Amino acid sequence: MLAVGCALLAALLAAPAVALVLGSCRALEVANDTVTSLPGATVTLICPGKEAEGDVTIQWVYSGSQHRQWTTKGNTLLLRAVQLDDTGNYLCFLDNHLLGTVPLLVDVPPEEPKLSCFRKNPLVSATCEWHPSNTPSPTTKAVLFGKKINKTNMKNDFQLPCQYSQKLKSFSCQVEILEGDKIYHVVSLCVSNSVGSKSSANVAFQSLNMVKPDPPMNLVVSAIPGKPRWLKVSWQDPESWDSSFYMLEFELRYRPVWSKSFTVWLLPVVQHECIIRDALRGVEHVVQLRGREEFGTGQWSEWSPEVTGTPWIEPQNTSAGILGNPTQVPDEDDGNEEDPSRYSVKATSIPGSRRLGNPRLRRKARQALPRHIPWDS
Fold this sequence. Notes:
Mean pLDDT: 80
């Protein structure tokens, strides 16, 4: 199924451009009597009605927040270099009698969206979002056009409205994906308002391969008393990861602060602590972690923010004005050191397959549980 899906997706993306059009992206419709304009343009408003025709004196009043009035000979009002705050209704009067209203909408065409889609754990839907560089106008709308691809049906089209969040400064929408779903998707974002529209480039993804966790959180690096070359590292799964069933494997990297080269470790799965045993004496080190689903499904997370730590430094007794007898601590591990298992990871109580130490047994246990849809669909 995976090979077929990859070939299918590659064929679609290599097809002529017409085959990749996911939906019609057009400017929003406005009322027939509404005048639309771009900022900086000159606009002519025409007072409706036969009474306004001829050489008559017309009074104009802007109904927006600013109190503005004009008097014209004839039924036209010329507005130069209009701006966004000129949007509103313009009322025209003859001898204090209202002849009509002319709506004006000044808007900026949307910028071309740069769409990204992600899925933070295998149990949630995919999120597709775009962060515009400028705040969009109030009339701007966004719609996600998509196509689901499988070996039996290539025409399963859909479209979803995407909401703008003032807090996150982004448009986003959710593409429903069931647990274990292996369907391929191709999506594109259409952003439009009254004066224009733009579509993003197509984004293709497979439901499982797109899983990308958030970085591990609460990373702590601490010294271990009596161990001048050891650093203890502990962390937690990101809050967005559902660890009740799916587990993460982790990769650790560290370096002295003055170095640009990292030492990298791939860590055992059931582990949220480890010990660095080859740190440099008395030197501050930079430590980072990233995570991925335990069986390699999906992508590595981004690296966690850098955290620094310095190994234990042997205290010196100078109270008497002379150097005291230092504790003899070897540079390298030897048989006289304390049992390192004292600092090793202790597996916590975990439900179901997570209590099984063998990853193959965990995978079998996970596959034996009921699904919304089969894993091999």
